[in-house]
Fold this sequence. Notes:
The complex is a heterodimer. By secondary structure, chain A is of the alpha+beta class.
Amino acid sequence: MYLAIREMRFAKVRYSLIATIMLLIAFLVLFVTGLARGLAYDNAASIQNMDATHFVMEKGSNHRFTRSQLNGQALAQAGVIAGEDNVQPLGVKMTTMKAEGLAGKLDVTLLGIRPEGWLMPQVTEGEGIATGETGDVLVDRKLKDSGIGLGTVLVDQASGLKWRVSGFVSHESFSHSPAVFLNEHDWQQLQTGTAARPEAGGAEEDGGAYSAIAVKANKHQAEQLAAELPDDEIVTKSDAVSAIPGYKEEQGSLLLMTIFLFIISLFVLAVFFYVITIQKSSQFGILKAIGTRTGYLVRSVALQVLLLSSASLMVSILLVQAIEAVLPDGMPFRLQASTLAYTSAAFIVMTLAGSLFSVWKVTRIDALDAIGRSAA
Amino acid sequence: MRHRLILNEITHTFEDGGMQRTVLDRLSLQVAEGELVAVMGPSGSGKSTFLSIAGALLKPTSGEVLLDGESMAGKEKQALSDMRLHKLGFIFQNANLIPYLKVEEQLMLVAKLGDMSRAKANDRIGELLHKLGLDHRRHAYPEKLSGGERQRVAIARALMNDPAVLLADEPTASLDAGRGMDVVGMIAREAKERGKSAIMVTHDERVLSLCDRVLYLEHGSLIEKY
């Protein structure tokens, strides 16, 4: 440790240059990770906010809410297995709407829920919706930017149905489109209005038609559901989220960027320390000749890497938090403590891996080189 | 009289282009306490090999090296490393100080490696630097020192752990005549005063008068000439 710290003190410029590069890379890693998490949340917020562990969907729907159609029978059956309180019907439909009095159209996702159930989001402004009242909806706050306010009437382009905005919710979206919540009755009305598959439901006497059933179930119950509902499939929440259109693609490319940044930092560090180690090989030879153990020198190199990477990481964490504070509200950025912790850990591990090559080199240096050498 | 370094029938051979080359041929040498032995010889005569074997850096093909009565034969790398740390003091051709350590830190490093207590190390550093006339250079980096000063620091570093044997590899190669005499004079004096056995490999005939014995390495053995 004696050597590592004194060398860094002596070659300040050299080590601060590499620390700066590491800082920038660490910052980029954290920023892209935050952006990826932010986009993920922005994309699938409504599903992620749901307190469900599994979703029951129609077989062959490929885990997609928008493709699946279930009837009330499935809901009743699921209720028997998982418990009446642990199942909630859910309707999901992406559509285009017009707001009365406003030019332009809006892409939204309609979510049909039971207002008394546990899928009901927190109302942040205005009034909630209830089962008895029809024609009222809750919309995501983001729609305010399009000029929608309390009482605005929305017209569905496909069915021509009209709803009045009674309240706002925040952070509710599906496939990046703002969510519009309606009660079960309005949802069924929408289904009968546009139903093309009467056999799959849509008829009120069947008990309604839904896209999926949100379930709170343990592993055992999930297996039982799969066995009891042969025509349907049980999808975990994370699978359902991944199947949201665009979700996997978006996350995939961001993940690729993050992985590349890790690999780049690995190589930058590996090359830097390797070159420095080669430069110092005669010094290492001398140190070994006067009786320094190889383990001591290896620890010295590893300590330098650890100091550099953790110092760079700490500064970049501060930077990212400063940036996060000044980012505009609309920017999807989300860096939770847990994400921050494992990204930082991965970064440190990567940099240490980058030093392995140099460590190997140090162990190969022969003390014999020190004798008969004219240059240090 | 005690011999702190004894080389018994050392033979060293290696393969060179399919030919078996014998660098050292049943070489024997005993260096007494307080004695400085100069080893001369043309390039390629095996001076470096000789010094590497005496310095526990290279294992001879056959023969035995005894350091303070302790044999090096059959020792593991780490044990040899510890032996170099505690029993041997190296003085290299160009001083070969660590560029990022100040003068006192060069010595402190050796003390730390040898697990010397801090107080004792500080005393010893003070004493050695004073003795070698480096008091005013205590906090200087090697790049700020003159060639002679650097070599004096190297001598102090070699003496730090109070070794049995001093090994010097052409310590005057990069110094002018006056400085060279000073440096070898110091090595001779330290060997005498502290009862160490010292070997110096050199080309420099001017400093031979300061040595107790002058040996020539020819055909793999050491020959005494007067």
